Amino acid sequence: MIVVLKHGINQGNKDSIRSFLESKGFTVREIIGEHDTVFGAVGNLVIDHREVEVLDGVSRVIPISKPYKLASRELKKEDTIVKVGNVRIGGNRVAVIAGPCAVESREQMFQAAKAVRESGAVMLRGGAFKPRTSPYSFQGMGEEGLKILKDAGETYSLPVVTEIVGTDYTDMMRDYVDVFQIGARNMQNFELLKSVGRTGKPVLLKRGLSATIEEWLMAAEYLMAHGTDDVILCERGIRTFETYTRNTLDLSAIPVVKKLSHLPVIVDPSHATGIRAKVPPMALAAVAAGADGIVVEVHPHPEKALSDGPQSLYPEGFESLMRDIQALSPVVGKEIERLPEDQPPEVRAINLSQDKSNRRIAFQGVHGAYSEKAIYSYFGEDVSSLPAPSFRDVFEKVLTGEAEYGVVPVENSLAGTIYENIDLLLRYPDIWITGEYRLRIKHNLIGLPGSRIEDIKEVYSHPQGLMQCSDFLEKHKKIKGVPFYDTAGAVKFIAEEKDSSKAAIAGVEAAKVHGMRILKEGLETNSRNYTKFYVLARTENAVFPNFNRAAVVFSTPDKPGALLKCLNVLADKKINMNKLESRPIPGKPWQYMFFLSLDIPVQSLFDEAVEDLKEYADDIRVLGKYRFEKG
Ligand code: PEP
Ligand code: MN
Fold first, then answer.
1. Which domain holds residue 591?
2. What's phi and psi for 170, nearest 5 deg?
3. Segment 491-496 long-range contacts (CB within 8 Å, at least 24 positions apart)
């Protein structure tokens, strides 16, 4: 059962509720959610719920209807994010685990680790104990293999995952592995599940060859009931009558499990298909279907592999797959997970900061805003988002140190530039652009829980939101667009108004925050709708090693060819201009500043260009230098 605790419950009451449940024989887990804190009480016991409901500090008791309890979404609404060192699996990211089927030698493992790390994998796989169909096939290197795997992982800062095949190995393997893998053949080896669960370590749990989803989740329950909270489910194909592929990849398991469980789900396209050429398309399909990651076999020389060579990718094939995953992830509202070393410096600094109170990022709007989603996608869910009423307030919060960074939209691919933020950048010389992020914007028509699209007469949203949905508004003439100061704020407004003829246009997050209903999805005129955000920092927080992009502003004398001369300077230094805006100079009617966003292939040439520009331009200022990974 789920025991929902009252808000602001004191520790004494909490302790006595826990002792009461434990005295009745329940195992108790505390789960701190976004809205509520609950105790999950599990055990094979019958108790009258009213006995718990009357305890001080209990808000209500909800029975869990599913046979799996700790793994169930009923118990925990929020997605579980499994942390393995600095790697996160779950939430809004796609984590890629890669490596050979088996550890074969030091040289092979180090080559594989280097290759997958360079292409962006965040965890290393490699079996030291191989459960092979034939007793005559290569059985793995055993403990020697574990040593090699661990060394390779440490050398390339990749946590490692490897399969355990029997309870005898639990203690020996514990210190070598970051994540235990339970293979498909052992999914229902309950003694093994108990033994591995007791280590409390993260576990990658493969789906059995002919296991139903419920049996799979019950296996996860075994692990959790014995002590680990960190289970990563892995769909790896099931047995069907089809023999062309090694197994049949059940992609529909992903959305099914996502609904039933809070645990992250990843996909193994290698064992699912057994054929190298089929691995990349199935990996991409998994990401499109909502998988939290993939685990894929990569071998430096697949033709020489001691096991699963025909399904192992060559390093080049893996690199190409990684590029595709990187491009696809934002389309489904996700980001590829990166190791801290590969994150933008400000993200790395925030994530590695021990002090959580130093992780405040300001945005304009209320909770559920697109800017807030951009914050979580860029920095990760561990930061605290700080709402600000206006864009100017975001700049102020960054300037005064109330926030470490700020995130503001600067351009939308359908509606164009958000001039206010460009102008604020010009007005705040101590604020720098330290990063850039592009978020896919999917607008929704959001109404009260009981309302229907036919009832809607007015729709509230930010003017940009209304503009991006112009075709929808054109088609539904009886719905009047009403400009509002922000999209998520519009959802809050209609929630308060409680008038079923009013709706808002905003993101799903805003509907969730305010308990509203999505009446229609994907309202934007063109589905390729992206907003570009700048990450803002105070000068001392702006670090720019490896920058490949910069923003500058300058004015030119009012004479023929003045701007052309400046642009020639950039062209001479191989600098590509990806944006040019002119903005009026306050107090100087009909005079303009030029704002430029630039691609910098060679860093030293940028500094030279800035020097050279001084000859032709006035008031030149660099607004930011940062690294931008093109998807
Ligand atoms: C493996 O990952 O190497 C493996 C043996 O997988 P499965 O258990 O899914 O067959
Ligand atoms: Mn294999």
1. 545-626
2. -55, -50
3. 491/368, 491/446, 491/516, 492/366, 492/368, 493/460, 494/446, 494/447, 494/448, 494/460, 495/448
pLDDT at 234: 98
Ligand 1 atom nearest residue 207's Cα: 9
Closest ligand to residue 311's CA: 2
According to DSSP, the residues that pair with 433 across neighbouring strands are: 536, 624
**What is the Å distance from ligand 1's center to 183 Cα?**
5
pLDDT in tens, 45-62: 778 889 999 999 999 998
Q: CB within 6 Å of ligand 1 — which residues?
A: 101, 127, 183-185, 206, 236, 268, 271
Domain presence at residue 534 = no
What pTM was estimated for this model as a whole? 0.89
Q: What is the CATH number of the domain that holds 385?
A: 3.40.190.10
Residues 235, 94 share a domain: yes
Give the ligand whose atoms come closest to the C-alpha of residue 270: 2
The token pair at 623 is: 């607004």
Clarify whether residues 465 and 436 are in a common domain. no
Whether residues 102 and 41 share a domain: the answer is no
- Determine, yes or no, domain membership for 539: no
Which ligand places an atom closest to the C-alpha of 132?
Answer: 1
Residue having the nearest C-alpha atom to atom 9 of ligand 1 = 184
Largest alpha-carbon pair distance within the chain? Answer: 87
- Catalytic positions, please? 531, 533
> Which atom of ligand 1 lies at the shortest distance from residue 101's CA?
3
Q: Which of 313, 318, 305 is nearest to 118 (CA)?
A: 318
For ligand 1, atom 8: residue with the closest CA: 183
- What is the overall mean pLDDT for the chain? 94
Q: What is the pLDDT of residues 523-538, one digit of tens each?
A: 999 999 999 999 999 9
Measure Cα distances from 118 to 74, 315, 338 in Å: 40, 10, 11
Are 390 and 469 within one domain?
Answer: no
Distance of CA 530 to the CA centre of its chain: 17
State the total domains in the chain: 5
CA of 271 to the centre of ligand 2 (A): 6
One domain for residues 169 and 270: yes
Looking at 493, 528, 563, the residue that finishes a domain is 528
Q: How far is the CA of 146 from the centre of ligand 2 (A)?
A: 16
Which residue, 284, 349, 335, 250, is CA-closest to 533?
335
Distance 252 CA to ligand 1 centre (A): 20
Residues 201 and 105 in one domain: yes
Which is the closest atom of ligand 1 to the Cα of 181? 2
578 class by beta-carbon count within 10 Å (0-12 exposed, 13-18 middle, 19+ buried)? exposed
Which of the listed residues 340, 372, 404 is the one where a domain comes to its end? 340
pLDDT at 291: 98
**Given ligand 1 and candidates 133, 163, 232, which is best to mutate, with the most ligand atoms within 8 Å of its CB?**
163
* pLDDT score, position 139: 93
Task: Give the pLDDT score at 540.
Answer: 79
Check whether residue 299 and residue 265 sit in a common domain. yes
- Domain co-membership, 413 together with 429: yes
Q: How far is the CA of 175 from the centre of ligand 1 (A)?
A: 21
Nearest-angstrom CA–CA distance, 491 and 370:
12
